[in-house]
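Question (not urgent): is this output format expected?
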Amino acid sequence: MLPSQPLLHAAVFALAVLQALASDTFIAAVYEHAVILPDVTDEPVSPDDALALMNKNMDVLEGAIKEAAQQGAHIIVTPEDGIYGWHFTREAIYPYLEDIPDPAVNWIPCTDPTRFAPAPVQERLSCMARNNSIYVVANMGDKKLCNSSDAGCPSDGRYQYNTDVVFDPEGKLVARYHKYNLFRRETQFNYPKEPEAVTFETPFGKFGIFTCFDILFHEPAVVLVSELQVDTVLFPTAWMNVLPFLTAVEFHSAWAIGMGVNLLSANTHNISLAMTGSGLFTPEGPTAYHYDSETEGGCLLLAELSARPRLAPTYPPAVNWSSYATSIKRFPGGKDTFLGAVRRDIFTFSELGHKTGNYTVCQGDLCCHLIYRMSNKSKDEVYVLGAFDGLHGSLIKYHWQICTLLKCKSTDLNTCGQPVEMAQTKFEMFSLSGTFGTNYVFPEVLYSGVQLAPGEFEVLRDGRLKSKHGTSKPLITATLFGRLYEKDLPHPLRTSS
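Got this back:
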């Protein structure tokens, strides 16, 4: 007699749990998705048309999920806006939204689709997870009705949230997160009244989740790691690359190192908007990443990661980011400084005039020290040491402290800070440090062609970012990116009732 479907599912799930428990590693996947976009319109389309578009995207995502499961993945992350895109007014996105319940309701949409209001997207995502015995992480829109008894209720009588959902290998909804830090163009969504620190336990560690722009702020990102001690962060994103410090793979890898956690980053893929760059990042660097600004297709990445990286013997030691920099005198180089703009941020720069040298550059409370030796100095390339200590952002203002070894766009010093993707100069060694006023510093090394440098640099306990050997490729930037969250200005758009 053949076992029934529910019994079979339970048996498969139990086996998967036992297998995961037997190991201190797990296989993670992320999928960079080239989203099929709807036509731009101010008027809402019909619910049927909205669902048809979402199903086209979910067809692609389902193919990636099946492939990941077949390769042994325990969990897969898909991108922010991956089901319907991002060109919406508040009214136009409404047909794409579903009411997503609190996971405490203990719901498997795949087997009980009519328990709540119609939820075809949640049902299909749940079935993808269940049918492939894999955790599925997706981003979609949540709607919550409200009325005048709620002083914050929007005039159209509903809240609309940018939302991440997680379904376990049985298809059960186990996490729901409403994005707290909306990017400035996300006017189709509301800000949650309070930040949500969403975590869930798995056989392979404690997981947290947040979305895109959240990674630059204290809540909920830092809270999840520093206070709630998650092992792995799930990170759906629609990230537009901004050189020199904020390309997706560069900053997300640096954040995982600086925070000491795994980060599973799934980006959307749209080269016209400079959206590419996904990866499986760890406290020791990237295990797999993808950056492709040339072609139009998606990409599936898989890697085996430590389930509880803090317990791993190779877990990096705690860093005192200002220890070395505050213990030394200023270096002789760096007296001739000039101001230059990185986008709208005014840095203090000093040109590295020789093949080798020791430089110090200061701005505000931050002094940056650099020791370097170039292996070949191309005559038509200029590098600078730069310092920035101040508020970043035109509307939402948040405090950065940055020390950077940076290639200028040309030999004209006015171009220092402008985006550069290619370089020719390699370094035999570099050591960069700064008198940071924060414990939250993210170390970045970016090579020519927007490539990372796994295994080629280290962060010492005293806060120095050092090359281990010579750089294997020409250098675009080596940067220590610090965040002083306590100096951020109040958010101008978030209303609290």
